[in-house]
């Protein structure tokens, strides 16, 4: 390769090209700030307002924790069929085959169910006369304590004020 070609390539690749790149870099305007994406709006949950004990004594603290934990569980796992307010009105199919769940906010109706029966219904599910599950069992999902907390929450639903 003759000297002329080497000098020319050195000039192009060693000086002119880097200078052109630096100039391009310095003169390119920064990208226009992109508009932030529109916030995704979730509808506010309409939950029944269960009265919470306010005291600092151990009983109030334990009860408050049980109600809040029960609410968390009920409003995640149970509302799909029992409804946000516990009225048993969120599963049209079960209602259409005559298996509408009880109204958990109806004190008189719920008093027919002892805590023991409630626990067994939760743990093992509810079956119809053929032995088919009409309500799923929760023993593999919830611990005994979680089932007791959800019972405490449901027991307080008749006292709840409706959401505004
Ligand atoms: C897939 C729908 C579904 C889910 C989810 C569900 N249930 Fe039920 N549940 C039912 C149906 C339907 C009945 C009525 C069954 C019957 O009478 O044969 C029922 C009955 C019950 C009963 C007996 C009294 C009543 O309401 O009729 C209790 C207590 C109960 N469910 C509590 C719960 C709790 C607590 C959860 C959440 C951990 C829950 N259920 C989740 C469908 C569901």
UniProtKB/TrEMBL annotation:
Domain Cytochrome c: 65-158
Keyword annotations: Heme, Iron, Membrane, Metal-binding, Transmembrane, Transmembrane helix
Record Gene3D superfamilies: Cytochrome c-like domain (1.10.760.10)
Annotated GO MF terms: electron transfer activity; heme binding; metal ion binding
InterPro entries for the chain: Cyt_c-like_dom, Cyt_c-like_dom_sf
Membrane-spanning residues: 6-26
Name of the protein described by the UniProt record: Cytochrome c domain-containing protein
